[in-house]
Structure formats: C-alpha cells, structure tokens
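User: Can you model how pyridoxal-5'-phosphate sits in this protein?
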Amino acid sequence: MSAAAGEGMADGARAMIDLRSDTVTRPTDAMRAAMAAAPVGDDCYGDDPTVLELERRTAAILGKEAAVYVPTGTMSNQIALRAHTEPGDTVLIGPGAHVWFGEAGAPSPISGVVVRPLEGERGMFGAATLRAALNVDMGPVRARMQSPVRLVCAENTHNGAGGAVWPLDLLREMLAAAREAGLATHLDGARLWNATAATGIPEAEFAEGFDTVNVCFSKALGAPLGSALAGPHDFIERARRFKQLYGGGFRQAGIVAAGALHALENHRARLPEDHARANTLASGLAAIPGLEVDPGAVETNIVRFRTTAVPAPEFATRCRERGVLLNAYNRADLRVVPHLHTTDEEVERALDIFREAAARH
Ligand SMILES: Cc1ncc(COP(=O)(O)O)c(C=O)c1O
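Assistant: Here's the modeled complex, given as structure tokens:
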C-alpha cells in the first residue's frame, strides 16, 4: 500500500472497494494538513494567496499565460464554451465527449450553441474529419442560414473511450486544420495528468496549440474539489466574469486550493501506480468467462468492459453485495477505475468478486 493510499481513511467506512471513479478519493492526512495551514483571502476580491498560487502553478505546468480556479470541471468547460462563442454558433466535438453528453446539456441553455459530434475512433478525430465537417461552403447567401462553426473541443485522456490518450501527432494535425480554418480550440484535459503519466510527454506539450485547457484536481490527483481553466491572459480575465456569473466565486477557496496544490505537487508522480493496477484489472477481467475487455486498449486508469452473460446492472448489484462498487452504464457496459486509495490486495479481491458475480446462478 502506498503512503498516500494509507492516509486519510479515518472518515467514512472504507470496507467497500470503491472502483466507480477516481473522484471518490478522500484528502490524505498530508493534504488535510496543507489545507489547514493554508493562507486564505477572498476569491471574489482576487486576493486569496493560495488560489493565486494554484492558478500560477497550473498555468506554468500547462504552458499558458494565466489560469482561473473554479469549483468543477463542468464549470471550467462551460465557461470556455461561453467565452469562445456567441449564441447560435456551432461547437465541433469528438464522439462521446464529456462536454457533450456528461454536463447536463449545459452548452445549449448556458451558451446557446449547437454541439455537433464528429465521427472518430476512441473519442478522437483527425484533420481530415475536421476539414470534411467544415467543407459545406454553399455561397454567401446560403451561409447566412448556417450556424457558424466557432470552436473545436478535444478530450484527453478520453473518459468515454476508457482513458484513451490522443497521440500527439494526430492532435497536432487536427489543431493545424482548426487554425487553418480560423477556429478556436479548447482541450478538456480533466485527466491530462494521466496522459502525461502514460507517455512521459509533458502536459504543456499536449496543451500546446489549444487556446484554452480545462484540468481537474479532483480526478486522479485526489484533491477534494476544483478545476482550472488556462489560456491567454485576456481570455482568462473574461472567463473570471463568467465564473462569477455562474456563482463560482468561492470566497476562502484557498482551503480547497491548498488541497489541489498539494495534489499537483505530490500525486502526479504516483499515477503510473493507478495505470499498473488498471492493467492488472483488465488482464484479470479478460480471463473471466462472460466478461469482455481489450487489455491492450487500457492506456491509463480507466477500464471499460462488457458483460455478455449477466446484465450489467445485475452484475453491479452482485458486486456491491460482495463488497465492490463499480459503474454500469447500460445492459452491457461497465467501468472500474483504480485510484489513490486502491491497493494491490483490493485489486485481487475485486477480481475474485468479479469472477463470482459473472458466474450464472
Ligand atoms: C473528461 C471529463 N471532463 C469534465 C468532467 C466534469 O468534471 P466535474 O465532475 O468536476 O464537473 C469530467 C467528470 O468526470 C470528465 O470525466
């Protein structure tokens, strides 16, 4: 068990093995100590020193001019959409993107935009797909009838595609095509940390070429809450207005920003542990009759798999009764995500339980 995994378990029963998400973590003792000691101010007045430090550090890691700390990834992404677009604009996005299907339909009521998902494999799309989507020139009169494409969004790693990492060359070609077409670009990098941990490519390289980037401290890194939107200085100043407008000014936010800073500095290096456990889970699941998974497709910390024998909700119920929590999405698709507190022993126990739950009885 890692030191971080062993800490912070005093509150709440941890008898269940919770593999639903990398968001279910609790602050470690060291993180709580950092939070307790944090100097704070008032986020709405822009003078909370810990928030300002977190924003500076995040911008530096991402190679951007500035960043704004916000309560959630959803708020970060939706501020980006609002600040990049006007009502009636079109936003192009990859298949299964969180911004499109996982944020309560926010792009429509909040920004009044049309979100058009592109086709692609594992949540990704290339320059050719983007160019084809833009190739609808019907002349100036008909153009007035169209919703202008303003923004392209990518997600890296891709949650819906089981934590898939966009290869840098594919990403760069796509970004060049977006630039050529004069489009703004936004990266939902909620788990960009995992892309870096899996490839050794710094976060700033993945972020390069994107106008704005969302990152989350509450996923994978184990902070209690918070995300940041990074980008050019003027854009982030505009984003601060929308943060306030959406009720995101959170006063003594330095308390939680300290947890995020602690996570940023101390928990990125341990992410390969989660990836290794995800691989062990995938190989174990692949050996269980009635379950299907492609272990080769597991690049980071998310393992998506299918059940062919027992319906997924029933499988999840059986697992819960035996001590494991996991997510079922429909009749066949499930997900497990090892995280900061997951141990090797828990992985082995979970696999035994999956074996029992998959057996017909
Ligand atoms: C890829 C991705 N983007 C954005 C979000 C939204 O983050 P939050 O839950 O903090 O609103 C999530 C949440 O799981 C996510 O997986």
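A couple of observations from the model: The mean pLDDT is 94. The longest strand covers residues 149-155.
User: Helpful, thanks.
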